[in-house]
Amino acid sequence: FFKFKEGNVDLIPAIILPNRELMIYGNGEAVAVADLKTGRQEIKKMTEKKHFHGCCISPDERYLCYGVSDDYAVTDIHVVDTMDVEWKDVAVKTVGMLANHFQFFPNGDEILFAHEGATETIPDRLNWLNWKTGETRCLHRHAFDEQGKQIECIGHEQVAGNKVLAVRFPVSQMDFGIIVVDPKTGSCELVDQGDYWHASSDKNGER
Q1: Is 36 exposed, middle or buried (0-12, 13-18, 19+ CB in 10 A)?
Q2: Span 68-90, pLDDT tens digits
Q3: What is the CA radius of gyration of the chain?
Q4: DSSP class of residue 144?
Q5: What is the pTM of this model?
Q6: pLDDT per residue as tens digits for the range 122-156
Q7: I need a labelling partner for 204 at 20 to 30 A (CA). Which of 5, 61, 109, 122 fits?
Q8: Which SS3 state, helix, strand or coil, does residue 35 take?
Q9: Phi and psi (nearest 5°) for 119?
Q10: Alpha-carbon distance 57 to 61, whole Å?
Q11: Are the beta carbons of 190 and 175 closer than 8 angstroms?
Q12: How far apart are CA 168 and CA 193, in angstroms?
């Protein structure tokens, strides 16, 4: 459906809405929807930016969150009401980072997103947004040694119930493995030490 321009290396992130039997996907030009039963595809919203960073859908399959940028340094995070005929923005939040890996928490008001970039240079990978209030905050500041060198590297975050599951990578100069971060308290617990690069959980964070 999307035809890449010459030199365009952007991926096309996509998500499936099983209850509505739709697929939503986008690139640096537009966001589109495909009917999984009929195959009909339709552009729903122009992104007005060069790069499309990713997308996710709220637990009730109503609100779409995605990020766009022109330079990978400042990201506009959009929340769109997909039940609205015009797919109107209900919130737009601009953050001074390459924001990606958007995921809704179970309440539908809060979104996890990642400060993406070179692993060993990012000190604030895990971030939180309440799209209704516009409040954002870093959920966990990475550890540094006494000389100011970063010794903790985190990635592959996932919403797990009301908490966040992530991996402290082996390149960290401290105990590494699977960590769980509590967004309310900011606590960070190493729950399984090991040479992990990926991890996953069920949506309730029980397994």
Answers
A1: middle
A2: 999 989 999 999 999 999 999 99
A3: 18
A4: B
A5: 0.92
A6: 999 999 999 999 999 999 999 999 999 999 999 99
A7: 122
A8: strand
A9: -50, -45
A10: 6
A11: yes
A12: 9
